[in-house]
Amino acid sequence: MSSPMIVFIRTTAPMADSKKPSNLNSIDLSSPDISSSVSLLKQACMESGFFYVTNHGISEDFMDQVFTQSKNFFHLPLEEKMKLLRNEKHRGYTPVLDELLDPINQIHGDYKEGFYIGIELPEDDPDAQRMFYGPNLWPDSDILPGWRQTMEKYHQQALEVVRRTARLIALALDQDASFFEQPEMLGKPIATLRLLHYSGEVSEPAKGIYGAGAHSDYGLITLLATDSVSGLQICKDKDAKPQVWEDVDPLKGAFVVNLGDMLERWSNGIFRSTLHRVLGNGQDRYSIPYFVEPSHDCVVECLPTCQSRENPPKFPRITCETYLLQRYQDTHVDLSTYN
Predict the structure, then answer these.
(1) Which residues, including other chains, have CB under 8 Å from residue 252's CB and lie 6 or more apart?
(2) CATH number of this structure's domain 17-333, picked from the four choices 3.40.50.720, 2.60.120.330, 3.30.200.20, 2.60.40.1930
(3) How far apart are CA 317 and CA 72, in angstroms?
(4) Residue 9 — very low, low, confident or very high, per pLDDT cuts 50/70/90?
């Protein structure tokens, strides 16, 4: 079974852009100097919405295992992967071209394949009926032994890194450190691990061909693990003409962290959910983003510390579920296409 070719008519020509290397702040999660860490993080959140985190507590040996298991899945025949095609709850396999992140500039979907893994809930759990909760899809253990156990362990460890990072973000917003630990936020989050494989196509922005089109992430924050192959770029000023794209280089042993749209809404635009994209350079590239959003019913609205008479709220109140559903519908192929 082959992946569908989804063709869109580009209404405007992609704008030429320039490139330069990025210089991101690095936040040491083991540092006892909380004040310095918060200061560095706040600067990064205001300037680019991207930063590195180091000394996060996940060993390099285990990360190597996670990447090895990710490659093992993507090396399976397409027929095997399609048996785990993503369901209506966005769990499972996404073929090449399934996701279209920048319909204005892309001529078709992203040149990447992926696999979604959410927080595991049994079908008889009442919350499993919610859109982004429920049981996951898993490869057969006879085909990929230890795969599920590795991914579940990583899912748990990555969430702990996010919680520690969120404490610093809360302090940078002049909130109590435990602000994002409330039950309706990270007390019961929508946390999605996504394995990605860019299979070596060379991107050509002038022709509308991208590994991943330009987009901002939807939720609170994203924790990104990458291999040593470059490709990630950020654009700090989406309205600049031409747009300036900066390369974000892999940093061994570190995660790249970026802010999502909901955090930009909470901060009234003070913290930034920045455009980013991936350009393929002819090499296979593997990355593992971990997307974290608050619970379905969490109301995202401007924090009191981020508004004033001179700077009133810029975004309307919205629930997490409503916002996520709209963004997923806008960027993914309808499942009926695969029939």
Answers:
(1) 60, 228
(2) 2.60.120.330
(3) 42
(4) very low
What residues form DSSP beta bridges with 18? 244
SS (HEC) of the chain:
CCCCCCCCCCCCCCCCEEEEECCCCEEECCCCCHHHHHHHHHHHHHHCCEEEEECCCCCHHHHHHHHHHHHHHHCCCHHHHHCCECCCCCCEEECCCCECCCCCCCCCCCCCEEEEECCECCCCCHHHHCCCCECCCCCCCCCCCCHHHHHHHHHHHHHHHHHHHHHHHHHHCCCCCCHHHCHHHHHCCEEEEEEEEEECCECEHHHCECCEEEECCCCCEEEEEECCCCCEEEECCCCCCCEEEEECCCCCCCEEEEECHHHHHHCCCCCCCCEEEECCECCEEEEEEEEEECCCCCEECCCHHHCCCCCCCCCCCEEHHHHHHHHHHHHECCHHHHC
Cis amide leading into 4 (omega within 30): no
Strands 232-235 and 190-199: unpaired
Backbone torsion region of residue 90, taken as left when φ is above 0, otherwise alpha when ψ lies between -120 and 50, otherwise beta: left
Both structure tokens of 200: 């070596």
In the block, which residue shows the tokens 């955090």? Answer: 263
How far apart CA 170 and CA 179 sit, in angstroms, is 6
Q: For residue 162, which of 48, 58, 61 has the smallest C-alpha distance?
A: 58
* This prediction's pTM: 0.90
Amino acid identity of residue 78, one-letter, is: L
Burial of 77 (0-12, 13-18, 19+ CB in 10 A): exposed
| C-beta of residue 258 within 8 angstroms of C-beta of residue 274 | yes
Please write the tens of the pLDDT for every residue from 22-66: 689 999 999 999 999 999 999 999 999 999 999 999 999 999 999
